[in-house]
Amino acid sequence: MRLLRHAAGAVALALATAALGPAPAKAEAWDIAKAAAPYKGTELHVIFLDRPGYRAIIKLLPEFEKQTGIKVSYEIVPYENTREKEVLNFNGQGDLSIALVDLVWIGEFAENGWIQPVSKFSGDASITDPNLNLKGFFPLLLDAFGTWGGTTYGLPFDNYSGLLFYNKCMLKSAGFDKPPATWDEVMTTYAPKLTDPAKKQYGYALQSLRGETQSADSFMRMLWPFGGSLLDKTFHSNLMSKESQAGLDFRQKLMKYMPPGIVSWDHAESVNALAQGQVAMITEWSAFYPTLTDPKTSKLGDCLGVAPEPAGPAGRLPALGGFSLAVASQAPEKVQKAAWIFIQWATSDAIAKPYVEAGGVSGRTAVYDDPAIRAHYSFVEPMVASWQKGVPEFRPRFPSWPAISEIVAEFGSKIMLGEVSVEQGSKEIGTRMEAVLQKDGYYDGKKKLLQ
Question: Domain of life here (predicted)?
């Protein structure tokens, strides 16, 4: 089931933005130093990931701290450990003052009261940028990453679309003058010609490490393009549908063109394999573009190509991923206000271009209208096209997702390893997933089916 589409989400977004009031047509420049003066010396605590978007904001932090006197202390944590670490901090009333919120954590974080609504702060002119302009974000991103139940909690940060990154030189040597447009072409034409195990060269790599990488980046990525889905309209498993089975069968067959041990590969291994010429194609987040263009981490140079994810029988439905930054409810009031100032700055139009130039991916629309940005960064056009069109949220955002993700990760990995068949694994996921949803009240009217 396509749980949330851009069109449906726009209704909630409209309600959220209306509650915050219209954006001023032409606002004065924000005196951030004046806004931050009462909070000078405040220390904020946040978790960052070891990804380009976070390295980019870290590069810009000295300017923020110089302007505001607010100190930002960050801990870099592997993605797979981030949610658990944040939840433990919230439950233990720890020191986090800013929450890093994946789009599939927003329901859990909001319903548990761990994050504050934006409206708590946006009405206070003394700490709010007059150019905040929530309508300046891509509506898809603000809705998916920051909004829950019609209320906006966080502002989009480090957001991305799934893209096809490929080695143009390898494709040219194999007789191809353009990337594959469909998954069928990947399987039947491109991957076979680009795979030579004797040379340790492979046509494609799909990051599939057990955890959220397996459940989202691998398992779910192959459902949507084939017309499948995790759940149907009644929140029961849809994995036994012919479309879902076709997508998972396709993934299994495609493995013969992937490197050995792919089930233990995370994003870093997949990106590095393309960067070093070991694989010809990967489907990865747009956030990894800086890694693939950096001569210190990549041998690709002019051989790097970027295109939309291939289309399946159901059309071109790329993965959607990313985060928002939200104020943590556990923080003292003074710290919360300082956190709000930082979140606005980190996601603002004002630093969008420097952020992109430093290696980040902004959720603001205006920066991608800049001809220089479009010309210099080849990932921009396919990424923006997917955000403007709107894509289904291929991972459910409800609070039950973390428990379901563990189930999908376990049996998705077992399917790839051949420990269970696609059919057996799908049935097991369905049974266990429905038990979680039953316990959480999705079949007795206690929970709303759609958010």
Answer: Bacteria
- Give the separation between CA 254 and CA 159, rounded to whole angstroms: 28
What average pLDDT does range 343-370 have in this prediction? 96
**Residue 163, beta-bridge partner list:** 284, 308
Whole-number Å distance between alpha carbons of 448 and 137:
27
In a domain, residue 383? The reply is: yes
Q: Is residue 343 part of a domain?
A: yes
- What's the N-to-C CA distance of the chain in angstroms? 13
Q: Which residue, 145, 152, 154, 103, is CA-closest to 405?
A: 103
pLDDT tens figures, 309-342: 999 999 988 888 889 999 999 999 999 999 999 9
3-class DSSP state for residue 217?
helix
Cβ atoms of 271 and 186 within 8 Å: the answer is: no
More confident residue, 145 or 60: 60
At residue 1, the pLDDT reads 31
Q: Give 370-425 as a DSSP string.
A: -HHHHHH-TTHHHHHHHHHH----SS--STTHHHHHHHHHHHHHHHHHTSS-HHHH
Q: Which two tokens stand for residue 433?
A: 């997933």
Residue 298 lies in a domain: no
pLDDT at 451: 42
Say which CATH number the domain at 358 has: 3.40.190.10
> Given this model, what pLDDT does residue 395 score?
65
Angular region, 245: left φ>0, alpha ψ -120 to 50, beta rest: alpha
What is the pTM for the complete model shown? 0.80
Domain count, the chain: 1
Q: Is 160 left (phi over 0), alpha (psi -120 to 50) or beta?
A: beta
Structure tokens given for 57: 């904001």
What would the pLDDT profile of 363-380 be if each residue is shown by its tens digit?
A: 999 999 999 999 999 989
* DSSP collapsed to 3 states, 73-132: EEEECCHHHHHHHHHHHHHCCCCCCEEEEECCCHHHHHHCCCECCCHHHHCCCCCCCCCC
Q: What pLDDT is recorded for position 448?
A: 54
User: 298's torsion region: left (phi>0), alpha (psi -120 to 50) or beta?
Assistant: beta
